[in-house]
Amino acid sequence: MTGTRNTARGRAAATVLALALALPLAGASGALAAPSAPDRTTAEAPATRPELPRPTGKYAVGRDTLHLVDKSRKDLWDPTKPRELMASVYYPASGEGGRATAYTSLASARALITYYKLDVSPAAYSSTRTYARAGAPAARGRFPLVLLSPGFTAPRSTLTHLAEDLASRGYVVATVDHAHEAAGGEFEGGRMPPCLGCDPDSTVPGSRITENRAQDLSYVLDRLVGGKSGKAGESTEGAEPAWRRAKMIDPERIGSGGHSIGGAATMALMNTDRRVRAGTNMDGGIQIKPEGLRGRPFLMLGTQQTTQPDDPYDWAGAWPLMDGWKRWLAVAGSGHFTFTDAPVVLQQLGDVDPDAPISGKRSAEITRAYIGAFYDQHLRGIKRPLLEGPTPGNPEVTFHQP
Fold it and tell me: Where is this region: Disordered (predicted)?
C-alpha cells in the first residue's frame, strides 16, 4: 500500500491486470500482489494509536452504515448472487452525540495488512482514531451529496479522512465497498466477501470493472435519494430511499469522486447518470465518451507521473474531451496512495515509503484542500481562488495544461 504505481513490490503480480485495464486497479505497489502468509509481527495491543487529521469544517460528523443489494444485477465476480454493496454515510451532525466509531475491525485490518504485505500491527492500524460518531443527531438543512469509491483491492475505510472532512464542511458523503473487490472490505455482520477480483490471473477487462462500478454508484444514488438512475428519458421518482436521513440530501447537488479505479468509475458514472453534477479523480484512469461530459466540471488530482507522455492513464488524451470546467493537478513527491488514508496512518506506524516522500500530514492537507475547494465551487457555488492557479502555500501542486 506504499509507493507509486511503479513500485517494484507486487509489480509482477500486477502486470496482467494492469495491462488489461490500461489503468491501474489500485496501483502497482502491493495492491495486486497475491496474499502473503499471515503477518507474524502483529500484536493484539497497539503500541501506539494513530489518528486521522481532525476535520476542518464547522460541523460535527455523524456516520451511518448501509447494506445495499441490487437484485436486478448479478455480481460480476460471483454470478450466482446479486450485486452487494456497503456504504458508510457521513453527514453534518449537530453536537457531539452518538457513539465513537472504529476505523476498521481487527479482522478487516488483518486482511488488509496481510494482503498488502505491510509490516505493521493490525491492532494498531484498526485502533486509528476517527472523528465521526455513529447515530449522531443530524444538523438541520439540506446538503450536497458526494460519493467516494476506493481503489481496487482497497476498502472504503481508506477514504475516511477525506469523507470526515467533507462532512464537517457541509456535505453528505457516502464511501462505498464493492463486493469482492477489496481486501478487508467489511459487510453486514462483519462478513468480508473474498476479494475474487484480487486474483492476478483474472481476465475481466478493466473497462468492464469500471463500468460495473459506475453501475454500483448509480444504484447507491438510487437508494440514497430514491428513484432510478438519471439517464436520459428515465424517471427518478418512485422508490423510497434506504437511508433514514435522506431528506438531508439536496438531489440537485450531487458529486462523485474516487481513488484509482474509483476515480475512473466516477467519469464512467458521469457518462451515464446526469444526476452527477461534478466529478473528481484521484490518480485513476480515464474512461470518457467522445461526446464528453456535457459541460460538467471535472478535477484530476494525481502524481507527477500523470504528466508523462507514456503514462498508461493517458490523462492527456482525455483532456480535450473534457468540455466543461477542468483542472489537472500534479503533486510533487506523491505516490499512488498519497490521496488516501494510507500515508497518514502508516507513517505514524513507522511504514514510510521512500518513493513518495511527501508526508502524511501534507498528503491529507493537499487532498482535502483541493477536493473540498472543487466541490465548494461546483456544488455550493462558493468561489475558491485556490483552484485558479499555483499558490505559495502549496508549492508541491502544479497546474498542468497539455
Answer: 32-59
Specify the pairing of strand 276-282 against strand 143-149. unpaired
Residue with cell 507521473: 305
Per-residue pLDDT tens digits for 48-88 = 799 999 999 999 999 999 999 999 999 999 999 999 999 99
Single pTM value for the model: 0.89
- Quote the DSSP letter at residue 138: B
Tell me the CB-side half-sphere exposure of residue 316, using CA atoms within 13 A: 12
Phi, psi of 156 (to 5 degrees): -60, -25
Question: DSSP readout, 123-156?
Answer: HHHHT-B---EETPPBPSS-EEEEEEEPPTB--G
| CA–CA gap between residue 161 and residue 55 (Å, rounded) | 8
Q: How far apart are CA 363 and CA 54, in angstroms?
A: 14
Task: Find the Cα–Cα–Cα–Cα dihedral 78, 83, 88, 91, rounded to 10°.
Answer: 160
Check which CATH number belongs to the domain holding 395 and give it.
Answer: 3.40.50.1820
Tell me the CB-side half-sphere exposure of residue 71, using CA atoms within 13 A: 0
Contact 167, 121 (CB under 8 A): no
Q: What is the dihedral of CA 29, 209, 327, 323, to 10 degrees?
A: 160
Range of the domain at 297: 11-399
CB within 8 Å of 212: residues ≥ 6 apart: 76, 178
How many domains are there within the chain? 1
